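Researcher: We plan to redesign the surface later, but first we want a full-length starting point. Tokens attached.
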């Protein structure tokens, strides 16, 4: 190789290396300064050095958009435009540009920027959530019509429906709750659906946003809620909390008929919400159906006064009423504590405290080799009502109640007894007036003892509370100590 040729090659390599070194040092300097919260002066210097660097332009955009001292939306928009032109794949820049446009009143441009953000990051929960909120905030703005958001004739249900209920026959027509254009609602629901697909924790927020937009909750449920049980229950519970009972019932009916497996514990918040809102027929039907579907108990082992066959056939929407024929079955669920109480639904509810811990006892029992033991530690003059069960009953009906108790060393003048409370009366009168009866108190040491009582429910009674009780003692020596066991509890129609 001749000397001139060698010199040319050497010069070319040297120029390449120097150029590479320059850009490496420059980029390192830019990244270092950007990581250190640079000042406006630093950013402007960097912008002169690297006028087409998207990170510098985006940083300047954020400075002008969010700085109290240098707030200038027009400058922010200009720098975001430069950044997005240099790097159209940065969804964060597109989102910030959309916010700047929206704050400037340029709603159509903001919509297009958010569409670009979605194209840049189609799997970003934040982008879809931003678009959904943007649509709700600007639903009445006519410029959305020119932004391409409502130009598609394709129905929303043409979108992917992986892991969803088949909604191919659903439509958004006929709703009277839509307050903004139906097509825009379709896009909103699609954004919410994609948000939930990407992050199931966003479900309740999405439902709330759809409700704020005035969309019929039944359409929201059918469109955005995934078919798997955890999300279904989260939606059902949310609709119940909002007292959207028709939609909550729709959700439960859909889930219970879907064949998707679920656990009895997952149904308890919904059943408890029904009980709390005096929807006893529906609560009982849901409970019976859940027991059957989860195989928690064989359907023939549990029957209620409202639905003796345990079919859970009641439906407020259809008007079907449960069979109210006479039942001789024990209405107490889990009467011998053969299963761990569920602490919800129509099973026993137990509040365990340091003053009176509650345990299943497999050593001392009346039958089925189990009982429930409450041990009072002698540290408190306890007002005890920590073991109870809701029981659905029929109005104006005579009942026989009985319970087997055993006590050991109950040392105060106020002992243990069972009482039954009429929930209907309790909500309208002082609680003492709602107590239908109290059994005899047990003090000291007692072997297994049966306490029983007959009573008749009132004309408006549908729900009772059956509970173990000890009222506080007024005496000086009043710190209760000792043990009580519950062996078997029964409540039957007479």
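Model: Full-length starting sequence:
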């Amino acid at each position: 190789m001749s000397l001139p040729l060698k010199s040319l090659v050497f010069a070319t390599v040297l120029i390449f290396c120097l150029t590479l070194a320059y850009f490496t040092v420059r980029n390192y300097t830019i990244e270092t300064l950007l990581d250190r919260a640079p000042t406006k002066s630093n950013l402007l210097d960097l912008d002169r050095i690297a006028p087409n660097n998207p990170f510098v332009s985006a940083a300047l955009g954020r400075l002008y958009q969010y700085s109290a001292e240098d707030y200038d939306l027009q400058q922010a928009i200009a720098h975001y435009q430069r950044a997005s032109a240099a790097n159209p794949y940065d969804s964060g820049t597109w989102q910030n540009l959309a916010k700047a446009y929206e704050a400037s009143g340029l709603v159509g441009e903001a919509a297009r920027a958010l569409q670009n953000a979605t194209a840049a990051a189609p799997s970003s929960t934040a982008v879809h959530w931003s678009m959904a909120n943007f649509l709700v905030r600007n639903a009445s703005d006519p410029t959305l019509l020119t932004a391409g958001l409502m130009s598609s004739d394709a129905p929303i249900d043409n979108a992917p429906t992986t892991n969803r209920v088949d909604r191919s026959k659903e439509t958004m027509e006929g709703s009277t709750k839509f307050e903004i254009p139906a097509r825009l609602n379709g896009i909103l629901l699609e954004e919410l659906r994609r948000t939930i697909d990407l992050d199931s924790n966003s479900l309740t927020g999405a439902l709330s946003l759809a409700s704020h937009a005035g969309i019929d909750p039944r359409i929201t449920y059918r469109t955005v809620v995934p078919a798997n049980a955890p999300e279904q229950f989260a939606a059902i519970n949310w609709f119940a909390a909002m007292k959207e009972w028709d939609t909550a019932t729709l959700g439960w009916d859909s889930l219970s008929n879907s064949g998707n497996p679920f656990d009895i514990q997952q149904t308890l918040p919904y059943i408890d919400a029904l009980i709390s809102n005096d929807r006893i027929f529906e609560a009982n039907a849901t409970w019976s159906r859940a027991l059957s579907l989860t195989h928690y108990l064989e359907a023939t082992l549990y029957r209620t006064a409202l639905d003796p066959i345990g079919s859970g056939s009641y439906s407020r929407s259809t008007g079907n009423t449960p069979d109210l024929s006479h039942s001789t079955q024990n209405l107490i669920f889990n009467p011998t504590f053969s299963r761990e109480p569920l602490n919800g639904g129509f099973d026993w509810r137990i509040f365990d405290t340091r003053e009176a811990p509650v345990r299943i006892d497999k050593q001392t029992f009346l039958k089925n080799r189990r009982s429930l033991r409450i041990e009072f530690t002698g540290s408190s003059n306890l007002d005890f009502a920590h073991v109870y069960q809701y029981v659905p009953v029929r109005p104006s009906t005579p009942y026989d109640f009985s319970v087997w108790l055993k006590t050991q060393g109950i040392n105060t003048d106020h002992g243990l007894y069972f009482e039954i409370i009429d929930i209907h009366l309790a909500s309208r009168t002082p609680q003492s007036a709602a107590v239908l009866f109290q059994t005899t108190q047990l003090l000291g040491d007692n072997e297994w003892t049966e306490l029983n009582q007959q009573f008749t429910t009132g004309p408006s009674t549908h729900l009772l509370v059956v509970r173990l009780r000890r009222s506080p003692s007024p005496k000086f020596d009043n710190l209760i100590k000792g043990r009580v066991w519950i062996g078997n509890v029964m409540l039957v129609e007479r």
